[in-house]
Amino acid sequence: MQPVVSGFVTIILLVSAAAAPASAADTVYFALGERHELKSEILGRQITLLVREPEQDYADRPVPVLYVVGSDWRGRFAHLVSTVELLESADHIPQMLVVGVDLPEGNGVLIPCRDQGDGAGTDEWLQLLTGELFPYVEETWNAAPYRVVFGASNSGLFVLWALFDRSDAINAVVAASPMIGWCPELFNEKFGAWIKADVRGERALAVIWSDDDYNRVTEHVPPFAERLGQEGPDWLRWSADEVSALGHVPPGGLALGLREVFSDWAISRDIGSVNEVVSHFEGLENRFGFPVPVPAGPLVNLGFEAWRNQRFADAREAFVAVSTYAPTDPLGPAGLALVAHSEGRIDEARVLAKQATEMDPESGIAQRVLQRVSVDPDTAE
User: Most exposed of 198, 268, 332, 370 (fewest Cβ within 10 Å)?
Assistant: First the structure.
């Protein structure tokens, strides 16, 4: 396994650093993932994968997988990983394993109606996905069999085709600027058969394109979206988003698509109790079929909101829940320290704040809480 690092992140750090140029010893590299090689019997060669694991420990619970299929993806992998991490940190999507699949021969091989000669084509890549890649990933990492496949341009056409052909193995797809115009008749025939199929369980489909996209997109995706609205089956959740003036494969397409796939994941602002937060995420687990831990973020927000409004019993309940559901998060004891300090239990507050800073010495919130509880409540700001 070979770590893959992002050179552009290093450049940003060096440019933004003040004073003298940094030496090689000062350079900080950020790993985006690990490179793996999968020996494919179907294609008769090695397949290069980039794998990014969730930042949170997932040893005790399998996580869903985002598969990124396409050519020239290595330069985009940093952007895709950053997108996933931002959505994860905001609790808009679950923690996910991200697997990038290299196509050195170009993603033209994924066009269903193109003659590939002696090369591997759509059928072989479908077999590779479901027969080799999915099993390999789920045997190697703690991956749940909930699979989201992302593709753009020709790969966007392919992921739609893959969903139509292998719905038993794929739960959701995100297609950015899918080039349906390569084979519209064949595509529509395949789609028509799929929506009449007996598919068990919910499937999700998100399509994103721009109004100034290629003709093979703008002339064919809108009619496809219209047909989804007219004929889409009950078991399909779908979205079709046209953006303005962002060209072929609009930036941010993956974010839009994942928000649609996990459209009910983010917690509503109307939820105002610990029990409601817990019930929300238990419901997601039942719906998606993989373990869904209760994240600390919504509970922390409840706790701080209650503390600011001097509802100390509610704040205590929320911060206790943080420590219960996310025992390594320093904001549990940090929040309890604020509550204890506000109620005049100064020694207890200082012990809890010290505990929070020891759990994560780099937590700015924990450090500020420790400073706050180090003074008498009457003089604290």
Answer: 198
